[in-house]
Structures are given as C-alpha cells and as structure tokens.
C-alpha cells in the first residue's frame, strides 16, 4: 500500500486515519504494518504499536542484510494466526514494496523463481503489469531467489575492482562525451574518477584503474557526463552485491611480478556463467601498460578474475531509452574484479596497487579535469520528478 499520510498529502495518498479505520474494521488485532521508507515515519501509536521498520531509499534496492530479517519477521507474524495480515508500504507502494513482497513470496516458497514472483506481483498490483521496474531492484530479487534456491548463507565478500569497460559508446553530444565514474559502498563514496574525454567515433571506453578499489557488499556505480564549464548530468547507475559476482574469466599465465611490464593479456575465456551476465557477450581484451609495485599485484596470478556484465536493460536510467537514442540495444558495462585471497588479510578500501607517482591510465580518452571534490549526485531531475510517481 501507499504511505499513510496526513494533512494535505492525505488528500492524494492514503490518509492515515482512513488506513486505521480500515484495518481496525477488517483486521482488528490481526494486522501488522511494515514501513520501508527511510525518509519518513509517522505516529505508530495509531496502529497499536504494531509497526516494523525496514528502511531503504527510494528508487534503490535494500541492503542484502535487510531482506532476510524482513522475510523472517513477516513469516513469523503470518504463522502465528491464520487471521493475521501484513500491510507493507513504501511511499507509492510499488517499487520498494514490490521488492520486499517478491522476496517474501520466494522465502515462503510460493514461487520458485524471481521472474515468476515479479510477474505475479506486477499482475496483482498494477493494471499494466509494471510492478517492479527498476533494474537494480529486480536484480536484488534475483539475488534473494539464488539464496533460497541454492540454500546459501549470505556473507559479505570483498572484491578488488580492476577495470571497467563501456561498449559501444553512448551517443552524447554527437558521439563526444566527458565521462566521470563514481563508486559507493552502501552510502559511502569510495572512488571518484577524473573526467575522461571520449573522442567522437570511439567505439568503446576501457577504464584501467591506477589503483585497486576494495569493495564489499552493496555497491553503487554511477556514470556522469560532465562537459567543461557545464553542470554534470547523470547518465546511468546500477547496484550490485559482491557476494553474487561469480562468473570467472580465464586469463592465461603471464610473466607478471612487481618489476616487469606486461604489454597485453590475451582475451580471457569465460569459464562459468553467473545470473547477471549475458552468456553471448564477448569479454574484451585487457591490457596493462605500467610497472606495478604492490604486494597485491604480486599475488595477482593466484587471484581469480571475475566479470560482472550488465546490458542496457540492467542499468538504471539507461533502461528507459527504449528508442535507442543514446544507448544502442547491445550497450553493456563490464566490471573486471578479483577476489581477495584468504591469506592476504584485511584490505582497506582504496588500497594502492600502483606507483603513487603515476597518473591514472586511460584508454581512448584523455583527462580534462579532476573532479574529486564533486559530490555524488544520487538523484537526477528525472528521479526527482518521479518522487510522486509510481516508481518507489
């Protein structure tokens, strides 16, 4: 359901007094409210104190650690009495609510797959069957389906980001763009790249990071277009969780150590398939073009390389370009990562793996300016416009 609002907002949303009257009349002493809004709350005494909070932000997926306790809570409440009902709400009562309801449908074994749960929710909740539409939110329903189907115990996994590919290039400003990458771990920004000037006609962008970025848990990756002397605009973003990055790529042995340069590594061979990757996609070649001095790099031959590939329809905001005006149908983003070896010990975020005197290496672009002082803009104008819309 939608947020139980008060005052003027209660005119166009569910008024809290009407919600109380309905629940007391239809389900007296047998209802429990589940509030998913991180941005607001209300007087829980109106609902006899039977309100549980599992908050996460609008237009975003929940933390993985939030889903299991929510499902357990709902299942426990419903199991206590056949008359018990659970009323789950966010702001509009569609996106965030749909994620958690679908996860509960999987948790309670009412549906075996994420797609079946999502389709059922879309059919029952909306007229156009567009229930949970944001790609990252749908991805997290798929994550929870994997935990249930494979009987996995979730635990945070630390990965090191090595390289990021975009291909083919989006058609901003006639094919020329100034791209910036921002990576956050949960709500904390851990990396902000320089601005990469992509020349017109460039088929792809390969961002070779000058340092490994240590990431764990729920990760948000954002791409911005930031032309000179202009305000940057959000292109797209996506969330993923490091526990579920499982697709390995085979890299042939190379004479890598702390003092040698490697001009190129042949294209990796895919060895297994993960749930978020396109089986037919081709992993582009990797290249290394500068000395490496860190102890982490000396261990690199023993570190499994993983790849996360998301196509256009798996990227938040980019998926709205149904006319392919900016992103071609085969547009995809690839992240190449390493698992942290168990004998390495703890690794702090942003641990350096390259010489600090070196400038970042770029492929098919040149840096125009550093924008490390820019704050991450989590909401675009379009997202703000959707605040009172259906997506939540």
UniProtKB/TrEMBL annotation:
It is found in: Cytoplasm. Residues 376-392 have a biased composition (Acidic residues). Residues 255-292, 351-392 are annotated as: Disordered. It holds the Pfam family PTEN_C2. Residues 156-340 form the C2 tensin-type domain. It comes from the Eukaryota. Signal peptide: none annotated. Residues 88-139 form the Tyrosine specific protein phosphatases domain. Keywords: Cytoplasm, Hydrolase, Lipid metabolism, Protein phosphatase. Residues 354-367 have a biased composition (Polar residues). GO terms for biological process: cell motility; negative regulation of cell population proliferation; phosphatidylinositol 3-kinase/protein kinase B signal transduction; phosphatidylinositol dephosphorylation; regulation of developmental process; regulation of phosphatidylinositol 3-kinase/protein kinase B signal transduction. InterPro entries: C2_domain_sf, Dual-spec_lipid-protein_phosph, Prot-tyrosine_phosphatase-like, PTP-SAK, PTP_PTEN, Tensin_C2-dom, Tensin_phosphatase, Tyr_Pase_AS. Belongs to the PTEN phosphatase protein family. This is Phosphatidylinositol 3,4,5-trisphosphate 3-phosphatase and dual-specificity protein phosphatase PTEN. It comes from Coptotermes formosanus.
């Amino acid at each position: 359901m939608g947020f139980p609002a008060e005052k003027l907002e209660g005119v166009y949303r569910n008024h809290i007094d009407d919600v109380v009257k309905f629940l007391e009349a239809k389900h007296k002493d047998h209802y429990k409210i589940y509030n998913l809004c991180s941005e607001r709350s209300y007087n829980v005494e109106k609902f006899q104190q039977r309100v549980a909070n599992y908050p996460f932000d609008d237009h975003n997926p929940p933390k993985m650690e939030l889903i299991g306790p929510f499902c357990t809570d709902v299942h426990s409440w419903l199991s206590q009495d056949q008359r018990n009902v659970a009323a789950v709400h966010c702001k509009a009562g569609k996106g965030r609510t749909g994620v958690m309801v679908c996860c509960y449908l999987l948790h309670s074994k009412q549906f075996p797959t994420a797609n079946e749960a999502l389709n059922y929710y879309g059919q029952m909740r909306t007229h156009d069957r567009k229930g949970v539409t944001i790609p990252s939110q749908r991805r997290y329903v798929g994550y929870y389906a994997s935990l249930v189907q494979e009987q996995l115990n979730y635990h945070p996994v630390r990965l090191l980001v090595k390289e990021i590919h975009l291909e083919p290039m989006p058609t901003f400003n006639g094919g020329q763009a100034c791209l910036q990458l921002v990576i956050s771990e949960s709500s904390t920004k851990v990396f902000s790249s320089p601005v990469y000037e992509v020349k017109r006609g460039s088929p792809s962008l390969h961002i070779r990071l000058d340092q490994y970025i240590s990431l764990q848990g729920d990760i948000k990756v954002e791409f911005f277009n930031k032309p000179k002397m202009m305000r940057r605009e959000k292109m797209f973003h996506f969330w993923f969780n490091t526990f579920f990055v499982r697709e390995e790529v085979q890299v042939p042995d190379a004479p890598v150590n702390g003092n040698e340069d490697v001009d190129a590594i042949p294209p990796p061979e895919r060895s297994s398939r993960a749930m978020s990757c396109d089986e037919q996609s081709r992993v582009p070649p990797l290249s290394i073009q500068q000395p490496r001095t860190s102890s982490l790099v000396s261990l690199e031959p023993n570190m499994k390389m993983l790849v996360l590939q998301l196509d256009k329809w798996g990227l938040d905001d980019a998926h709205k370009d149904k006319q392919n005006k900016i992103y071609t149908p085969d547009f995809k983003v690839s992240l190449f990562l390493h698992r942290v070896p168990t004998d390495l010990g703890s690794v702090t975020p942003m641990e350096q793996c390259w010489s600090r005197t070196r400038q970042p290496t770029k492929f098919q672009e040149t840096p125009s300016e550093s924008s490390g002082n820019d704050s991450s803009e989590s909401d675009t104008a379009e997202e703000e416009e959707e605040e009172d819309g259906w997506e939540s």
